[in-house]
Structures are given as C-alpha cells and as structure tokens.
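Quick question: what would this complex look like in 3D?
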Amino acid sequence: MKPLLEVNNIKKYFSFQRGILRKKTFYLKAVDDISFNLERKKTLGVVGESGCGKTTLGKTLVNLHKPESGSINLNLDDGTSIDVINANDDEMKTVRRTIQMVFQDPHSSLNPRWPIKNIIGEPIDILKMASGRREKESMVMKLLNDVGLKPEHMNRYPHEFSGGQRQRIGMARALAPKPDIIVLDEPTSAVDVSVQAQVLNLLKELQKSKSMSYLFISHDLGVVHHMSNEIAVMYLGQVVEYGDTDKIINDPLHPYTKALLSALPVPDPEFEAHKKRIILKGQLPDAINPPKGCRFHTRCAELVGEKCKHDCPALKEVSKGHKVACWIYEE
Amino acid sequence: MREYVVKKLAIAIIVLIGVYTVTFFLTFMLPGDPARVSLGQHGSEEAVELIREQWGLDKPRYVQYYSYLTHFLKGDMGKSFRYYPRDVIELIKYRFPVTAYYGIWAIFFAIIFSIPLGVIAAYKQNTIFDNATVLFSQIGVSLPNFWLGMMLIAIVAVKLGWVNPVPDVEYGYYWTPVGFFTSLKAYILPIITIATGMMASNTRLTRSSMLEVIREDYITLARAKGLPERTVVLKHALRNALIPVVTNVGMQFLLLVGGAILTETVFGINGLGRLYLDAINYRDYPVVIALTLIYTGGVVVINLIVDLLYARIDPRVSLS
Amino acid sequence: MAEKDVLMEVKNLVTRFYTEDGVVKALEGVNFNLYKGETLALVGETGCGKSVTALSILRLLAISGKTLEGEALFYDDEMKEKLGITTDGPVDLFKLTKKQMLKVRGFTMSLITQDPMTSLNPVYTVGEQIVEVIKLHKGLSDKESKKQALKLIEEVELTPPEDIFIKYPHQLSGGQRQRIVISISLAAEPALVFADEPTTALDVTIQATVLGLLQQLKEEFNSSLILITHNLGIVAETSDRIGVMYAGSVVELVDKYTLFKRPLHPYSQGLIASVPKISEKKETLNFIPGNVPNLIHPPSGCRFHPRCTYATDICKKKAPELQSVENDDHLVACWNVKQVIKDLDKQGGASG
C-alpha cells in the first residue's frame, strides 16, 4: 500500500523587492526541495529553529501556499490517488476535507466574535456534512466531547476559555471534517507546561481513536520526540536529517542535529551534568542569502573540506530508515 | 537620503500635474460663467464676450488647459479674473503674511502646551490631572472651529471687551521683530480658535503614545539601571513617544488651510483662506487653481519634512 | 556550595495589582533566601508570580501594583557603603527611600528582561545604553566609560566591539541583543542579577550559548543570579537551587538534584512529570488536572488544593507555610507532605 501522503521535491519561494530606485527581487527559499512520506496513523515530527521553513512546509501541505514545483500525492484508502497541486475542484474538496491544520496561537486563530459552535460548525457547513441545524449541533457536541470539553459550552465565546481549552477548540474544528491528516503547527508552544501535557495526551488519544496521521511541527525536540514516529530536522529550508525518532535522538548523524540535541535543556540535572555540549558558532545566516554549498557549513564543527563550501550534499540513506544530508557520510 | 529626496520631488511633479488637471476640469465644470459673474447682471452680451476673449475663455478647453500648464511651468500663475489684471502670484503674496503669522503661532501653541500636558497626563494616569486633561482634550477636538471663534468673539471681545473682535493691526506690522510679539494680543482669538483643536489632538496623541511607551520593556530596564525618573521619561520615553506626534503636527499644517477659511471668515481677516473662498464664489479660476497647487505642493513638502524628521528620531526608519 | 553566606532573605512578600476587573492577588507570602554567588531558579507557570517577585524586590511594579507586606533583607557591605548606612545588620529594601533605591538599582541589583527585541531602546545605539549605566554608577568620564563599555561588549563575546558599540538595536540579532542586555546588567558589577526568562525568545542553539555566557559571567563578576523561567530544562541545566512557585508563593525550595529526583510538593511532582523528556520515552504524560487559577478569585487555603490529589480539609482552609522536610535544606509548603513521603517510599524512592 502506498503511503498516505507522498511529498516529492517541493519548493516554496517567496519573492519580495528591496530598494527604492533600482528595485531588486530577492527570493526567500522557505522550503527548498523537500521530500517525505507520511504513513497512515503515524506522526512525522518536523523540528527546526525559527526561519527554517517548518511552518511554510505545513501551510503548503494544507494548500495555504502553492509550491513552485514538486508534487504532493494523497493516496486515499479507497485506492484513489490525488495529485494535490494539480487537483480539479472536486478533488480539491476531498483534499481540504482530508488534510486539516491546527495553528500555533490559540488566541488569534479563533474568531473572537463567534460562539464556538459556529467556529467548529463552519467546516460542517462548508462541506455540507449535516442535513440540518439539529444534526450539526449534535455533531458539534460530539466533537467537543471528543476533545474533552463540555458540550454545553458550545454557546460560549473563545475568550471565555483558557489557552489550553482554546487549543482543544482548534482541535475540534480540525476534527470536524473527519480528516485523515492533521498538520499541527507548534500546538503547545503558547500553553503552560502542565497544560501542554494534557494537550499532548489528547492528541495521542485522538490519533488512535480516529486513525489519523499527524505532521507535528515544533521547535521543541523534547515534545517532537514524545509525539513522533519519525523526525525530519530542518535547517534553512532543507531537511538535513530524516529518520526514525529513536535513531535521530539516540544516534544523530548530522552535525546540526547533534548541536540541536546538545543545546536542548533536559529537565534532568544528572543527564545535564554529563551532557557534552556543542556550541554553534555564529548566527543563523540570512535566509534570503543562504550560504553556498552546504547551508550549515558556516556554523559546522565537523567540516570535511572545501566540498562543504561549494556543493550541497543530498539527503542519502545511510542505514534503514535513516537519511542524512552531509558530506561526512558520503563515500 | 539625497536619492530619497530627489525621488520624492520627482513624484511631486507628477502629483502636481495630476492635481492641476483634476482641478482645472473640475473648476471649469462649475456652473456660472466667470466673465458674466465679474460684470454682474447688467453687463451687456458684447462686453461679456469681450472679456471671455481677453481671458481666453472662448478657446477650446484643451487649449486653455495647455496654455495654463505651460505658463505654470514658467512660474507664471496667470492673472486673476476678479482683480483683473493683477497677477495671481501678487494676490497670494499679499495675503500670505497674515495667514502665516497667526498660523505659526497657532501651531507653536498647539505644540508647546500639548506635549508636556500629554506627558504629565500619561505619567499620572487616572489621577484628577489626567482625567481633566482627557476631558478637555476630548472637548477640544469636538468643538467646531467657527462656533468656537464666534463664542470667543461674543464673550472675550464683545462682552468682556478685552480685545477687538477684528484684529486691528496694520498690514505687515506683525512680521516686524517687535510686531511679531505685540500683535499677538490682537490675533489671540483666531490663534486660539485654530490652536484649540490641534492642541487637543496633540495632547491626546502624546498621552496615548506615552502610555504605550512607558509599558515597554526598555523603560522597565531603564529604571532597573537606576536612572532617575526624569531621565527615564525625558530621555528614554519621550523620544519614542514623539514619533507619532510628529506626523500629527505635519498634518496640522495642512489642516490650517481648512481652519483658515473658517477663521478668517469669522474674524474678517484678509488672508489666504478668505482669498480661496472668495475665489470660488467669484469663479476666479486662476486663483482657485493656483491655491490648490500651492496647497498640494505644501502637502508634498511637509510629508517630506515629516519623513526626514522621522528618520532622525527613529533610527529604524531608513530612507534608502 | 562552599560558603553559605546569605545575600538576601525575602520574607512574606505580598503584592497586589489593582485592575478594572478586580484585585489580582499576585503574591501571597513569598519566602526564600539567596546565597552569595548562587543561581537560584524561580520556576513556575504563567501567573505564578515569578516575574512579579523580581519586580517587587526591585520596587519596579507597574502603577497598578503594590507590595503590601514583606521584607527583602539584603546583606551587602558594598551597598551599605554606597548608601552611607553605618548600622549593623542587613538592609530592608522596602525601607529605603526612593532616592536610595535609585542607587541600589543597577548598582546592587540589575534586571535582564525576557524579550531582547523590546528590552533595548530603539532610538539609541547600544553603546550609549551601556555607557549610561557606567557613568551613572561609576562616575567615570565619557572616555573612560566608553572604554569600559567596549570591554563589556568584548566580555559578552561580540566582535568587533567598536562596530557593535555604534549599532542600533534593530541592527543586531536577538541573541546579540540579549548579550548587550546582559552586558548592561553587569556593567556596575551588581551583587544580584534578576534574569527574567532571559532566553525564552531565542532559538534553542542561541539559548544554550547565551545561558552559558550568563553563567560564566555571573561567576566572573561574583554575582548571584535569580533565574526566572518556566522551562524545567533550563533550570536543570543552569541553576544551583530551585524555588518552585505556584499561584503567588514558593511551594518548594531545594537544590536541583533533589528536586528532580525526589520532589515533595504535589505540584512540583506534577510539573516535573508532565514534561516530555528525550532521556526516556513514555506513551502518555502525567499531567496536572485543571488549569492555573484566576488570581482575582484564588482558591482558599492552599491555592493548589483544587488540582491536588492529596488535598484534605485543612488544605481548603489554611495556606501551609514553607517548612523544612527531611533535612534543613529542603523546604516544602504542604499540609500532607508526610503522606507524600510515605507514598514515595512505597514506590521505591524515585519519582518523575
């Protein structure tokens, strides 16, 4: 069986102009040649620092951005396969229903003037899933129940809920069209630690009960590790390492992944005391004008040679289920 | 920066030509024939025709349009219809000093009182002083100019008799070094009339901008450095808070024009405002067009000055 | 810790904010002590009062805030000298005049704020902003101050210092700005630095270097550090002792190894267990039921009782005090700590 979602070589560039008299066009290569597969009922974690393109990647998958090139194929359980980028109107409807997104900020992603039954009911209306008001309301109530909120709260407004509860509302809205894939963009970065655990547990339960796949985007390796089966590490628009969670965490290969792991503060003093720290030199380069060759070479501690400065290494499989883009691992 | 100024001025020329075009066709679409208006009810048909010919009104519209344009480019604003054959430039030059005189004072007062008031009100938020300032500035922005002017005449001039309702200063005297200050009393009512609204809006803006700034982290950090409050407010907060106020003051120079029309009507001042209004009433198209162009030019120049000031106050603003 | 000289004792701090919605009971009896040269982390979630504690001690609360009760006893001779105080014993910061406080701020105590994007004044160069403190507290000439400022910029590893000196904040990256803020906070070599979420706004790799630098400079300048954060990882990495705060008071105070190995307050236990760790993989995370309370109408008694599995009647009526448990250095504010210990021992000691 083909993977649920096949993403091949997608690129998303943003162009903008600088200068007054002599306008120059610059390109921000937010997503630059990224490929991955998302398997059924699995979670792919996407991790990286600000500006690495992880949010753009998520938005491209739910069609908020149209990629410059590449292909995204959605292979449904009934055997049909949809080319997402060139989909016709009918297919697009299916895509929209199948792939949903939950946004980072539970404060700004919900319309403050709508009661939550309208917020959650909107996709039900758009996709004409209910045959009447009563059916719609009962669907909304069931969704609220699914995400651990009281169904009788459906007439309340977003500001009456706490950050964690709002994130649950966002989740209910995403669940409404019964999607197969949910793109979660930093779903817990705006909530408190103790609430984060509640939300993460809920996400895992829902994934099991509703048989969904997640693309889990986060800057927090600890959270990504907890949630994901596979992890893709991004740096300046590219995936530098991609593989099973355990392999990435326990046996990181790319110097950037190693640095990221060593920089992650672990809530365990004994672990911290023995941890070897890799300090990255310099600043994150300007994404508009990224370094030539391997994009990480300006900060890398393990340069192989001139090659790193001139040629960009491709993502290559070094062991089963573990790919890395680094000259160290090229024969 | 030079590149920026040059570019802005280049755009200004295009804007001016556009404004000229629009004003030209709009004014000539106004009902009423200037020649007829100037001769009154009893002028003969022949006399009207003669004048039309003299003023070039008999030519096709596009010929007139082109003729005015070429003259403007040479710096010639044409001759007034109403005061024919006086040059428009001459009329404007004559009227300008008085409007400039009370206008400058009005803006001066609007700035020097409003900024300290706004700063103190923000600093003493929710005290009686703050509430009073908010109340007065609320009233200030809502008072219509002409009403305020008439009230001032009725109370201060007529009832109390402190000043003359119509400023009685010899033409031009107010621009002599002594006259600049001694004429203030005579012009105080029009100055207050115009300054009140401006002052109120500057005060409100300074206050709200200051309130925003003093909540910023860098103000907390400035205090944590151990700086005395005076330094925190005057050095760290005020400069940031003034950024929006600069734009507002720039806008007020432009609002002066509207204010001048009403104020000069109420106080019987023969300034640019009156000239503008009369020119429209008498279908004195060359004057209307010239004043509109000067006004537009003023807008461009003031915007440019505001931009340059901005860049000086706020290093984040870059002009290139 | 080799020497255990106390630098500051904070006793029963009570702070309120008077807002349109009501009185926010932000701090309700905060107690802790701080040793010379140590890094004490105050850790807790939104609204627990960790930042308010710092601002209360610095006496820099917003106009709506007021510290009603409490003492902050400071044991620092240099400060007494600067203030011209000759009496014996510590100085209570809350008893100082406003003018005296100006001499204390920046000189004895300084602050590093959370967001480097907003903590520097955008209209002055970073050099001017560093020089300002040096001139103020060291009374040096313009030239000398500049020299010192350049040295500080070098100290926070920004090069070349002359170039950085004339930069405006917006010309620097977040990490660079936070280094400048750190150099400002250390300019007068203060005895105590409050760092309020100093790296929350930064990326992980930048965060690590900034924290390392802060720790290193703190030692170099012989200062104590109060590190305010919600991130338990940072706490485990950077602190010596940890004060766990919940809803306006310190509920547990102990060295970091003990806290993570054997937390005794039910809230600390819940907090530590709820963080996903890369050192172990669990299917589900433990979590604390419910939400952080509203401090306008906080729960009666122990403010944690509605979310606590150990809660008994007394918890609803009376707030427990911070008391030593098991040994003198492990302080916990919980009525049922004995039961907690019993349960821990039953499980075999370790938890979390």
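Answer marked as accepted. Chain B has a mean pLDDT of 88.
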